[in-house]
Amino acid sequence: MESIIGEYDYKVESFHLDCTERLSLSVLGNQLLNAAARHAESFGFGREALRQRDRAWVFSRLLIQMDAPLCEFDTYTIRTWVADATRWFSTRNFAIYDASGTPVGYASSVWAMMNLATRKAVDLAAELPDYASLVCPENEAPACPIERSRRSNVSTAEPSLVFRPLFCDIDYNGHFNSIRYIEHLLNALPMKVCRNYPVQRMEINYHIECRYGEVLSVYVAEVGDGEYDAEIRKEDGSVSCRSKIVFDLKR
Amino acid sequence: MESIIGEYDYKVESFHLDCTERLSLSVLGNQLLNAAARHAESFGFGREALRQRDRAWVFSRLLIQMDAPLCEFDTYTIRTWVADATRWFSTRNFAIYDASGTPVGYASSVWAMMNLATRKAVDLAAELPDYASLVCPENEAPACPIERSRRSNVSTAEPSLVFRPLFCDIDYNGHFNSIRYIEHLLNALPMKVCRNYPVQRMEINYHIECRYGEVLSVYVAEVGDGEYDAEIRKEDGSVSCRSKIVFDLKR
């Protein structure tokens, strides 16, 4: 089963759609995580194996790009592989294909491994000595033409949305679930854009964890036509995450 | 494929868990809807067929009872059938089985068919003349020992939660998604209970539709040990839904 490139099949169910009737970005985010988890498990460093060692993978960055929409009952395939591993970070890439095998999107994610007792990052090379052998050589990896954006920069004075992560936003560690960030960020953008156009690209850089009940504010700046920078800030002004969202206004 | 009792298989993925590490009630709600939709489709009155006639099924009531938890990677089977049909309402029941075939829960739902142009209920007998023949005779139906609660009654003066349905809460009709009600109701309950005990039973009676951006308040009354009545009210005081939630404090 284990292969340096994991390949997993999915289907767009009716309740995976957002109100534009396309696969919602948060559901896609969860399916990317699912593919990553299944791939990691096949090599013995999945969530459960790590938890027994008091470790967990945490997101440092997530970047999703969709070039064509996925709609109700579409089947799609996610390929995923480890593209890079440094002492502190692992880069995992994804390519998303429609039923005919045509690429419809890409994603890139950067992960750190956390010591659940200390909440500090773990030295990957020391923790998983064989990890580097899982890195897929670039000439063997599927195409993944996706690049990191320039840093977002939001100087807006007033938040577009103030919310608190509640029961349904929290994961088993008591922290604000990484994928739920996608939903709250989209909730803070202008509805007339979200309602009518697909997200073509979304990047989230995770900086500081959030906990249940914290008051969080989403600040948004329109930086181009259908392009937004957004930040989620805590009450003390510290930035929990920075994000860039680009809509495809032509579709 | 079509059978008067539909049977569909599911699996609990990691991202289907709530922070208690059990299958979240909103994901289960979506899977019940999925089973209902697949069953309805097999008889030609699924969402797409109805939409072409400007009709849609809408929830009038949803009642879920879980007697044993479903956990990560568990497979489960949902059986669903039409238990009753009157002029205005169709009752669809569900039984949920674990991998060994043991029942772990039940659900019952009441649906009306809406004319999407007028937003009024449609006479089911006139709209779908053959519908009555789909009602599963009681002696052929799987056991579904689940009863409607007495009416909830909330006289609490202060709301536990005030929220607005935003982009991610809205369905393609522009209305507050029925299953998202589950999340916002749970978000309004005491976290120390939600965090530690499974929901044993949740009933939602849907009264008035809500739209994007409306200010909604959740009023909660503790009516017993681990038992809550809740109402979602609009700004004008009208009740959008009434709910009863019972936690299993012994698990």
Explain how this protein is built.
2 copies of one chain form a homodimer. Chain A is an alpha+beta fold and 251 residues long. Chain A is 16% helix and 35% strand. The first copy, chain A, contains 5 helices and 11 strands; from the N terminus they run βααβββββαβααββββ. Chain A has helices at residues 25-42, 47-51, 124-127, 178-187, 191-194, and strands at 6-11, 55-66, 75-85, 90-98, 103-115, 120-121, 161-163, 199-206, 216-224, 227-233, 239-247. In chain A, strands 1, 2, 3, 4, 5, 6, 7, 8, 9, 10 and 11 form an 11-stranded antiparallel beta sheet that branches. In chain A, a hairpin with a 4-residue loop joins strand 3 (75-85) and strand 4. In chain A, helix 1 runs antiparallel to helix 4. The longest helix of chain A has 18 residues, at 25-42. The mean pLDDT of chain A is 94.
Helix count of chain A, per DSSP? 5
- Average the pLDDT over all residues of chain A and give the rounded result: 94
Order of helices and strands of chain A: EHHEEEEEHEHHEEEE
Poorly predicted regions of chain A are none
Radius of gyration of chain A: 18 Å
Report how far the terminal alpha carbons of chain A are from each other.
39 Å
Structural class of chain A: alpha+beta
Share of helix of chain A, binned: 10-25%
Query: How is the quaternary structure best described?
Result: homodimer
Q: How many strands of chain A? A: 11
Strand content of chain A: 35-45%
**Quick one: which chains have the greatest interface?**
A-B, 33 and 33 residues
The main sheet of chain A comes to: 11 strands, antiparallel
Dominant shape of chain A: globular
